[in-house]
Specification:
- There is one protein chain.
- This protein has three domains: about 180 residues, Four Helix Bundle (Hemerythrin (Met), subunit A); about 100 residues, Beta-Lactamase; about 150 residues, Histidine kinase-like ATPase, C-terminal domain (Heat Shock Protein 90).
- A hairpin with a 5-residue loop joins β6 and β7.
- The strands form two sheets. The protein has a five-stranded mixed sheet. Strands 2-1-4-3 form a four-stranded antiparallel sheet, with helices on one face.
- Helices cover about 60% and strands about 10% of the residues.
């Protein structure tokens, strides 16, 4: 801090000291003057008594009074009184001291001859005494003027002292107002402005050479530093606020997406609603989510003027891409969209896991039913066949009617046994949780050795259906393949499947055989009706058509439903047991 040239306290102390000194000087001068006037009244009184004594001496001389000597002595004492002798000082005006000296000289000339008794001399003495009375009058008048002068000096001294003190006080107050009060008010206003975070201050008295000048300069520097710090802090707070607002916006969207995708069991609908939510929240022009399980899901309208941004999606257990998330927008946040993509991938994995669990549960249930049928109904049918064989051996060869009844029983048991085997085959259909294309391959593979026809699979549907939907689809395909293998006499059978842009699945089984004779199922045969019922459970349509040159096409079209449980399970529809007359 720079040194203070003129301290405020020192300035005020000097001013007060000057006021005190001036008051002491004026008061001392007045008191000194008054002290010199203490014996003025006595001197005037003595001078007046000299005049009376002069008249008395003149009377004594003319009357030859016996007290003349005493009166001369009194006059001598009065003339040489200390009060009158004190007039012979350097500060006494010359007019006063000179007249006093004249009185002394006159008296010294008059005193030796006062005792003469000659009349002519006495007359001269009287004349001289009367002349001294005139001198005494002038002396008294000089004393009066001297006393008045001293009173005027006292009054003038007091007046000048008061005026000087008043002037000094006025100058001091002005100095205090300019050098202290004004700068203090400026500092007060500046402190109030700083308190209200206004750091652009009015000009302070930084040119003062006292403590307030140093304080003003320090306050100016401090306000400048505070302004810089406040600006930097405001920018930091603004940046942090924007960052927190952006983070809150991201978290809000991600939380909403997580809430939507937590119901990923709904499948396409949950993902479609999530895309619509992201579209509205981020004000995108268009957004698309393409995965094999659902095809291409989209929201918004494509803008040919905007570029596409994309993120390739990977499942945690697969090194190959599982889909693509892409969008169109004037401006977007890649990190936010990356978070959305992560949520979509996680929800997709969860949905696939749920589908796999449902598939495994359904297959386990069907395998349990197959075991129960094998351990109960199959054993009973086997026992009945053994009993029929024993019964045939006990019959006489000529018992034709009985032989006929036993043959009918045997034929019925064989048909029941064949139907049971097909039922067990259906229930023991073990399909690994995989995509629909892989599941169709698992259905086709066991049937290839059962026919000389070439069976082709052309399916580009990589997605996985819900477990019960997939069972219905596979049972329809298996039934159509069995019909083609047993009755079509075909050379080539093709199983095809594809997904449209709207998400509709089309699965067709086509052969080049003799063609179906009628779509009406024969009595006691339910294969076609069961296929139609399964298509109905899928909310789809099943079309069976015959080509112009032969062959049959069984086509299933449906949109995968989003409910987690269908209205009826696959087990509620019994498998086809015979299709011998359906072609």
């Amino acid at each position: 801090m720079p040194a203070v040239k003129r301290s405020v306290t020192h300035s005020i102390a000097r001013t007060l000291f000057a006021i005190v000194l001036l008051s002491v000087f004026s008061s001392g001068l007045a008191l000194l003057t008054l002290s010199g006037s203490l014996r003025d009244a006595e001197a005037i009184n003595l001078a007046g008594s000299l005049r009376m004594q002069s008249y008395r001496l003149a009377w004594d001389i003319t009357s030859h009074s016996a007290q003349q000597s005493e009166h001369i002595h009194q006059y001598q004492q009065t003339l040489q009184a200390p009060a009158l002798q004190s007039l012979d000082r350097f500060y006494v005006p010359d007019a006063v001291s000179q007249r006093y000296q004249d009185l002394l000289s006159s008296w010294q000339r008059l005193q030796p001859s006062l005792n003469s008794e000659r009349p002519e001399i006495n007359d001269e003495h009287v004349t001289r005494i009367i002349h001294s009375v005139a001198q005494i009058d002038h002396f008294v008048l000089a004393l009066q003027h001297w006393a008045e002068l001293k009173m005027r000096i006292v009054a003038l001294t007091c007046l000048l002292g008061f005026a000087a003190i008043a002037l000094l006080v006025i100058l001091t107050l002005r100095h205090i107002r300019l050098k202290i009060v004004g700068p203090l008010r400026q500092l007060l206003s500046a402190s109030e402005a700083v308190e209200q975070t206004h750091f652009t201050l009015p000009p302070l008295s930084t040119d003062l050479d006292n403590e307030l000048g140093v304080l003003a300069r320090a306050f100016t520097r401090m306000s400048g530093e505070l302004d810089k710090s406040w600006t930097a802090m405001s920018q930091t707070v603004r940046a942090k606020t924007e960052s927190l607002t952006l983070a809150n916006r991201r978290l809000t969207l991600l939380y909403a997406c997580s809430q939507r995708l937590s119901r990923s069991v709904e499948g396409r609908e949950a993902f479609q609603l999530t895309l619509a939510l992201v579209l509205r929240h981020e004000r995108l022009s268009s957004i698309e989510f393409s995965v094999p399980d659902f095809g291409a899901l989209s929201a918004g309208h494509r803008d040919p003027q905007l570029p596409w941004h994309s993120i390739t999606l990977y499942l945690s257990h697969q090194p190959q891409p599982c889909g693509v998330l892409r969008w169109q927008a004037h401006s977007s946040e890649p990190r936010l969209m990356q978070g959305v993509a992560s949520l979509l991938v996680h929800a997709l994995e969860l949905w696939q896991a749920q589908q796999q669990v449902q598939t495994l549960l359904l297959l386990e249930e069907r395998a349990t039913i197959a075991r129960e049928l094998h351990d109960s109904l199959a054993q009973s049918l086997t026992f009945l066949r053994i009993q029929i064989a024993r019964l045939k051996r006990t019959l006489q060869p000529d018992a034709t009617q009985a032989q006929t009844v036993v043959a009918e029983f045997e034929q019925a048991l064989a048909a029941a046994n064949r139907q049971l085997r097909e039922l067990l085959t259906t229930f023991r259909l073990t399909i690994e949780p995989a995509s629909l294309a892989r599941a169709l391959e698992q259905v086709v593979a066991p049937l290839r050795p059962q026919s000389d026809a070439r069976i082709l699979l052309q399916c580009d549907i990589n997605g996985q259906l819900q477990a019960q939907q997939q069972i219905h689809v596979l049972q329809i395909v298996r039934e159509a393949l069995l019909n083609a293998i047993r009755h079509a006499r075909a050379q080539e059978i093709t199983v095809s499947g594809h997904r449209s842009d709207r998400g509709e699945l089309t699965i067709a089984v086509t052969d080049d055989g003799i063609g179906i004779a009628s779509q009406q199922a024969p009595p006691d045969h339910y294969g076609l009706s069961i296929m139609h019922e399964r298509a109905t459970r899928l909310n789809g349509t099943l079309n069976i058509t015959r080509g112009e040159t032969g062959g049959t096409c069984v086509s299933l079209k449906f949109i995968p439903v989003t409910e987690s449980v269908l209205l009826a399970t696959a087990d509620a529809i019994p498998p086809s047991t015979h299709s011998g007359s359906e072609r």
